[in-house]
Amino acid sequence: MLDALWGTLFPARCLGCNRRGTVLCLECAGSVPYLPAGACQRCATPPPRGRTCYACRRLSPALVNVRAVCIYEGVARTAVHTLKFRSGRYVAPVLGRLLRENLARQPLRADLVVPVPMPSRRLRERGYNQARLLAEQVVEQVGGTLAPGLLEKDDRPPQRTLAAAERLANLRGAIRCTDPARVAGRRVLLTDDVMTTGATLSMCAEALADAGAERVSGLVFARD
Fold it and tell me: Domains in the chain, start-ordered, CATH in brackets?
């Protein structure tokens, strides 16, 4: 009810043109930077110039593959920033629709859908975990069960503030599985808003694999 009242008093602005009344107008929907055909099937990197995708070498073997909908630029970048840093929970259904459209074209099944966790302090400050909002948008389509508390993360410096070489070290030992018995033998899908180096998804996948997960894959809205 409060969300409806807020939407009436302060209508959403289009992520592309800033026009009031819609989150993404029809014109700007045509500018969504979808990941092109030929992107790496394992890490969702746009088509490499050569035959080898070097980005895959950064991922943990525990992470089988990652799927992304968009390239992290233009209206997709604005959408992520709005969701993440501008109290933009209202953006989640639009991102969710784009994720579900991707899943409709390439079905994916999972037993558990696990949002990438946030440290408790940052969760209190923001009021929500954007990765969970996205997980809620796709859990039914993949046939799984939402498991938001299955991973915990210690409070470390934000990944966006670190160089690529520092990100894995920053997360080493920071993520753990809270209920290994629930994970054992299950197919797990990790969700997040954006993937850059893949360090966070890799560390989450390792924690889940150590707990006995049969398969861990990732689904993100955008690939940087």
Answer: 1-31 (no CATH), 33-223 (3.40.50.2020)
